[in-house]
Amino acid sequence: xxxxxxxxxxxxxxxxxxxxxxxxxxxxxxxxxxxxxxxxxxxxxxxxxxxxxxxxxxxxxxxxxxxxxxxxxxxxxxxxxxxxxxxxxxxxxxxxxxxxxxxxxxxxxxxxxxxxxxxxxxxxxxxxxxxxxxxxxxxxxxxxxxxxxxxxxxxxxxxxxxxxxxxxxxxxxxxxxxxxxxxxxxxxxxxxxxxxxxxxxxxxxxxxxxxxxxxxxxxxxxxxxxxxxxxxxxxxxxxxxxxxxxxxxxxxxxxxxxxxxxxxxxxxxxxxxxxxxxxxxxxxxxxxxxxxxxxxxxxxxxxxxxxxxxxxxxxxxxxxxxxxxxxxxxxxxxxxxxxxxxxxxxxxxxxxxxxxxxxxxxxxxxxxxxxxxxxxxxxxxxxxxxxxxxxxxxxxxxxxxxxxxxxxxxxxxxxxxxxxxxxxxxxxxxxxxxxxxxxxxxxxxxxxxxxxxxxxxxx
Length: 459
What we know:
Umud Fragment, subunit A, eight-stranded antiparallel beta sheet
């Protein structure tokens, strides 16, 4: 009788969890190294040439009058500046602590698959200085002729215009209703019509126009509390230097953001925006079955669209921009009709009253109201200033957002950046810093920490 075949040995020992964890850890490290070398790389912003979009090494404080946060470059001439929001001057930074510049994640492979696009931020090697990487915004593309005129970019002799998304990416804060000066609030910054249908509250502008048969209005003015007068909005940044008294350029391109809440499903609300030459108006007419949005240039109807109805007590966000002589309006993130382009205009007047509202037939409120300006490109330098600069094939013209304090294609001995010099595109601001205050008993401490509110994708 043959003996039974023996069963194969089965490893009944318990799994080695420590070994499995070690393997996963090694795999994780290899993946990180691969991504670090091949795909993505963190990059620190050391200088302020891209401020306020990306901040270099700087000092930070909060305005004692309105609470708005202010940054000043660590290499500024002195440690005094002003608050762009409320206008207070001679702010003392002597006690402010230094903060390292922003850190961004850079996609190192993107430009293997496509060319750099206009208005996007890129990291590259400057052909006049290979000692360190540079970060600037792409302005001119291969073969184009580039010139700066009155703060705008002209490509091949034509005004170069941004989409609203691009304009938002390039926007620079001017004023924020959410940070009202203590004691007086914003009372000096607004002119209110005789019907008094607008009430300035701490966090919003209250609208009481339900009983009005005619529109009531309110106008914002850029008011200097020190000079006791309205003044045109300038291109100065607190980040750069100590005084408003230095030569500032008047700006004309603006974006206005806010939220509108209505208590009725009928009525009318209008937003007027000017660039010193044209006055464009968005008119929203509320109806229970749907709302009408109209764009007017003076008395001429330019665009009209129907959108879903405004529901009582449901705030809706909107953006109205007049940038590069292009008017765009979006509601809840959607543009309901095509943008409208005005012809290029030179030597526009300074703007001290950039916007106003009108309301009729409803009660409600405007909240989260913020005014921004576009980048004003200074005409200092040797390339693309007095005359157009022609780029060669596979060359790009690069400019910093902080045009007053940026070393870029305007000033470099070699203006055009070759395509082969591009290192990647920043896609995430992942480590912005802020100063954190901590009290432990009777002791107070300050230390840098991550500014979670500024973490965002870079478009």
